[in-house]
Amino acid sequence: MPLNLFSVSLPSSTFSVKTKRTCPKVGAYICPTSGTRVNCKRMHPNFSKLGTSPLKTKYLCSSEPCFSTANSGIIMNTHRVVGDKDGLIIVDHGSRRMESNLMLNEFVNLFRDKTGYSIVEPAHMELAEPSIKDAFSVCVQKGADRVIVCPFFLFPGRHWHQDIPHLTAEAAKEHQNVSYIITAPLGLHELLVDVMNDRIKHCLSRVAGEADECAACIGTGRCKLY
To answer: The domain containing residue 200 runs over which residues?
Structure first.
């Protein structure tokens, strides 16, 4: 019997993710998620704390930040870090616009280069290829005994709660001894503030004639004042 993805409850500490990004805040800092006072020069964002944010909006991740299954009931890989036997699938929605789909390939290449992970594959939930099933098979062919599906989505809507788990479970049926996990979407994270702020600054520089078009809007002519 296949495992019910929605009944899995894993400890939130398992998903504490740290990064070496330098924190812009120096000295005492009140953490927005835990409310504790932090004295540091570098902040390590902790994804496991996102579900306890005082904002309490429907867009926050739940206390169960991802879905996991051992597939046939045999847990082949239980490491808390990404290893050589892990295959990562970065999945977006998919688009009828080819340029948009190709941008996912560029992001996957960038992600692979920056992280050094050996098996990283792109996938589209719908409308384009490769599918989640295709990417899952490629990961296994390259030697993965655990597949980590990473939704390239901001918030946990229907696609994360239903569609991606269903498609991944279907893909895993052909690889009974391969476990998999579906990570939380990007959610609310302070590093996304930096990303948006960088985008704003670049677009304003483009309008002022001081920067070229970015990869997202090149050739569209949309980066302008109206």
So the answer is: 194-226
